[in-house]
Design goal:
Protein name (chains A, B, C, D): Alcohol dehydrogenase catalytic domain-containing protein
Keywords (chains A, B, C, D): Metal-binding, Oxidoreductase, Zinc
Low-confidence stretches of chain A: none
GO molecular function (chains A, B, C, D): oxidoreductase activity, acting on the CH-OH group of donors, NAD or NADP as acceptor; zinc ion binding
Strand order of the largest sheet of chain A: 10-9-8-11-12-14
Largest sheet of chain A: 6 strands, parallel
Radius of gyration of chain A: 20 Å
Mean pLDDT of chain A: 97
Cofactor (chains A, B, C, D): Zn(2+)
Helix content of chain A: 25-40%
Largest interface: A-B, 44 and 44 residues
Family (chains A, B, C, D): Belongs to the zinc-containing alcohol dehydrogenase family.
Strand content of chain A: 25-35%
CATH class of the largest domain in chain A: Alpha Beta
Number of helices of chain A: 10
Structural class of chain A: alpha/beta
CATH architecture of the largest domain in chain A: Alpha-Beta Complex
Number of domains of chain A: 2
Oligomer: homotetramer
CATH topology of the largest domain in chain A: Quinone Oxidoreductase, Chain A, domain 1
């Protein structure tokens, strides 16, 4: 049996590179040789033991690669084809998928998120892709791996936050936190026609990137109070849509306080501990507020659309790749990324 | 100056019937002689001092009456015409109304709710209706006052909870609390095509009414655990839409726990104290949940539609009127209603 | 090789019962033994040669049956299970399905409609169901074949017309033509909360059924002019939604003329010949009109929802079955149905 | 009585500059001194007698100006304030406005379009604005008249075509005709996140402008066949949304033929003569197509949003002003504009 390198979760605090058998394409699935992948904030939650996965699970859900083996029943693809696969791999055929909630595939919360969670992921040399007919999307000619590396997760998630927020032309939108997902939400807000986009973070470098992706105004919360600034910028009106991209009580609450009556809080964060709704900001329930959460939309149609956005030049996220590592060095990559050292935004990992 | 009787807020715990001048129709407004009105749960919050209004404010926001005087600039109406006016009286011309958030008129939370809150209300012999062109709707021939008495608030609010929930044909919907608004939400869920409607309350009499309005299953939470029952009824799937119609942490939380991944919590309650989101039920933010709040939709078009629902016989809410009082007896009516004595659901007050 | 009886299209004017091999379950598919099926207006179009299919194609797309054989890769089902399969069998995994247009599966117009069109259908003893994981729905205990016989097509289509029309609570809706699909659209309009439902047809017997399914008013167009009546009933306002359920220029045009400015024409008909938009009724393009067409929604989640509507007693369509035939007699059944003899609405065919 | 200059419709072929009394602000209205206005294609239809208005009617519906007099009951504005008023002036208080169809104000087709149609318009020195509270929007500091001159009509209409089309991130959109409204639709498609925008026209100069506003590909229909090109560009898939911005059978039909199954035809044109739906392109009604028409959205909230889009620099339409005239020269301006001489796109008229 041929072996490959894979980064697996061992125990809280430890992700290690180990040898594993190369997967075989069972019916309906495809094996992809990973050419580039990356590390996500969620992987750090796993590393820290905050989001439990089985010991031995290969981590990673952001694959770019080449088809290596095609299982029975999968048609329309060829070995050697370059493909992107979404972080979320819906089956497309369960009640929940057919009801339009593909990310909750199987009717389980986050059930569509399989890679590096309930099955082996892509921080490895090879990846077994289930429900391949619905999840493999060829990469358009002329696009590099790094150009499409953000499609599987952060671009899909960030844009999803803008989409679920129901942004309309001329809206004012604030995005709290400008990590990779918040930056993509900023880009998404611009794509949907917001005319005043306010990005909030505590790191000037991230706010600088936010400006290149669509932010009209940036607020460094270590220097000024976001709510005071937002109310000044909106003449006391509040924002139409507030996007939460961190997953903390503080940012969730500030989002709610920033909203106009009738506004929408679009939440992307993964929360831990406790989350409360301040009733004054929530107008005791009388403010026609909406709170919507969005898990990364997946499936090959989503990937096709996102790569088209890249190909058209509408949004360029390559600059988010601040560091590059070989798969062999992935433990170093985790160390850098988990500690947000050296201005890291996203790392590219190449097996 | 002619005088009239009016029920005014005096101080926490005291609403008294006093003499006040009959209002005069200023430009754009109309004076309505109130023929029937009622008491709302919100009025009880005001009585208890939990929802502050100015001392001396006439209470009440559910008017049925007859046009007594028409102000300058108001056309298309005649003195003597029987009309219903919504609890919420949007101006129709501010930025917020034109943006589709009429209940938040003027851009202030609940800004469209004026009667018995920011201006004098209708627990009186006469009522001054602002923005009359957008808010007066003639009562179709053949409908009695009591048949349309629920249109201004509870029917509009309850149906609104079903509408905002985005109920689809074949949905399973649970409604927590079967007070007047919850009962209307139950009726609204049926009107939108839910095929399994579960009503929860602790009073059998209310659950019995819920059955007549559309509930397929009722759960007395004093006798069995709602969540266990809901999961059994849905084969563990959870409900598509959960409607909160009480305004407590317990019911809000049970709504969230009852939801399927991808489901919607439609909140109608007025909350006080604290409100927290249990993160397990909220899937840490990954469950594609939506939480929407709805303040009573107002305006004459809404009233026209609701009265058509009554006229067509689709929904009959007359049976909710369990007690009748003269305006002179309103203090007794408050005593009964605030203490939920004698199986009271709604009272009819006639000046 | 075992043989079965099947009704196949031979040439224009001829559908014959022939012997065919019983299909075998290939991977991803299931063979269903048909217990009850029916004939659709579209089958009559095929019979007449107006809608071309290959000679030798088994006709029929409304199956109720029992699982006879399960192909590789299909899990969660058992031989002997009673199931309903939609007329439309989306794959769930192509770009078009994942984009939410399952009825246009594969990106081809009406591509999701396979049975009796591009593959063999169900007017036979056995049926091969492709994409079985997404298309087989078990029948809830206690429901008879005839109770669920309308789910695969006319109930899904008719309800779909009401859903696509965007009916709101209190809407006025007219449905032109009260054949089986128009009757289901009438029932669907009621399920969505319309408060005035106007059914138009030229046969009193069909108008009588319309009343039992939700029509408040019926118009026999042989006796009075529908538009005059509609404008009288709506005080000149026009209807909010007009549903076309026949597929002719005359009914399409009357739908458009019946609409209010801002109204929606929801089209279910299959048109032949020419179709023109009268510009006066279309307000030269300035009337904010919407014209939407809906092909029968399919997939197992849709079937689950529709059977729940039946199980809850919300809508009962058994009375639409006016005649019953053995599969051996199907040529007689076509003769009756195609000529709309003897008050036929739908026939039940049992192999 | 003070007089002013006004361009009035006299008879087919004749619009003349005449003297008229300066209007007086009746209650609820405001008089605006017009500082800049323009000519619309619809005005040319009026000039040619194709769209009937009363003889003597002052033409024009695209006003930028300064408040000159404020009527009783209008608050929150000041004489001397610079304002924009939409071409459509909804009352905000009728059933139709409250139902969300403000452009059809009063329930009449195009009822919200009053200026230069049912009341005097703005090709004059002064303009009486009805329902002023809902229709006057102050111009943000720093914006010139010409920067906001497209807001009242073509920007609102063109963006409206993109909005009504339901464009999603990653959509392919074609816009047929790149006159002023088509160009704005092109800009609108980009604002909503389309990733492939195809602009079709027969004038290279207009296609060049289309590129600056968001078109990725332009097709000169005099040189190549649009449908062949569109199918090539979309790999035979068809477009998600096709926007019709001319008002002819040919472009309407090409839009329909360009659509994917499940696609939307968003129509902005004003049609005359006949309009037919080719049934092959319409898939005989089975293609889940949608056809939506959009009349220019009006009201002050819309103007606020559009001016914010201008202020943010998202879209710049100043370059559409190709020619400038004094009001005294308006007959020359009509002569140029009606004959599309000298590469004219829009003219600025200054009283």
């Amino acid at each position: 049996m041929r072996k490959m390198k894979a980064a697996v979760y061992v125990r809280p605090g430890v992700i290690s590179l180990v040898d594993k058998p190369i997967p075989t394409a069972v019916p309906g699935s495809v094996v992809v040789r990973v050419t580039t992948t990356t590390i996500c904030g969620t992987d750090v939650h796993i590393l820290k033991g905050e989001f439990p996965v089985d010991a031995g699970r290969t981590i990673g859900h952001e694959p770019v690669g080449v088809i290596a083996e095609i299982g029975a029943g999968v048609t329309g693809y060829a070995v050697g084809q370059r493909v992107v696969v979404g972080a979320i791999t819906p089956c497309g055929q369960c009640h929940t998928c057919l009801d339009g909630h593909q990310a909750q595939c199987g009717g389980k919360a986050a059930g569509g998120w399989r890679f590096g969670n309930t099955i082996d992921g892509c921080q490895a040399e090879y990846l077994l892709v289930p429900h391949a007919m619905g999840n493999l999307e060829p990469i358009p000619d002329g696009l590099t791996d790094e150009q499409v590396l953000m499609c599987p997760d952060i671009m899909s998630t960030g844009f999803g936050g803008a989409e679920s927020g129901g942004i309309k032309i001329g809206d004012t939108v604030v995005i709290f936190a400008q990590g990779p997902i918040g930056l993509c939400a900023t880009a998404g807000a611009k794509l949907r026609g917001a005319s005043l986009i306010i990005a909030v973070d505590g790191l000037q470098a991230r706010l600088d990137v936010a400006r290149t992706l669509g932010a009209d105004v940036t607020i460094d919360y270590t220097k000024s109070d976001p709510l005071t600034e937002i109310m000044r910028l909106t003449q006391g009106r509040g924002v139409d849509v507030a996007i939460e991209a961190l997953g903390t009580q503080a940012t969730f609450e500030q989002c709610l306080r920033a909203l106009k009556p009738g506004g929408t809080l679009s939440s992307l964060g993964v929360y831990s501990g406790k989350l409360s709704l301040p009733l004054d900001a929530f107008a005791a329930g009388l403010g026609d507020h909406r709170i919507v959460t969005t898990l990364c939309p997946g499936g090959k149609e989503r990937m096709r659309r996102l790569m088209n956005v890249v190909a058209s030049g509408r949004v360029s996220l390559e600059s988010l790749v601040t560091h590059r590592f070989k798969l062999d060095e992935i433990e170093l990559a985790y160390e850098l990324f988990a500690n947000q050292r050296d201005g890291v935004l996203k790392v590219a990992i190449t097996p």
